Predict the 3D structure of the following.
Amino acid sequence: MIISRIVFFVDANPAAYRLLGYEKEELLEMDPEVMLFGNISRRLFNFMKEQFIETKQASHEMEMKTSNGQKVLVEIKSSMLEFQGEIYVLSTLQDIELKKEM
């Protein structure tokens, strides 16, 4: 998933919207901060955001809600990048449910 500095999704690959149960158009209309971090405290979110701004990369495990309300455990890796004068966040999600069960 690619997120712009103004905080909206720019693009997402089919694996991301299949994992989360959304159509591509639905996912691109969602607020990334709410979708990715809506289930954590504002204090923790602000701490994570400050760390990300400082290091320009992050890796976290978290539960995300799918379109039908189920929870899925994912690893999210993000990197900040600049492209044509704009700042973006490139994130990958990986379902780690099976990995955690082992």
Summary: The domain at 2-101 is CATH 3.30.450.20 (Beta-Lactamase). The first helix runs from residue 14 to 20.
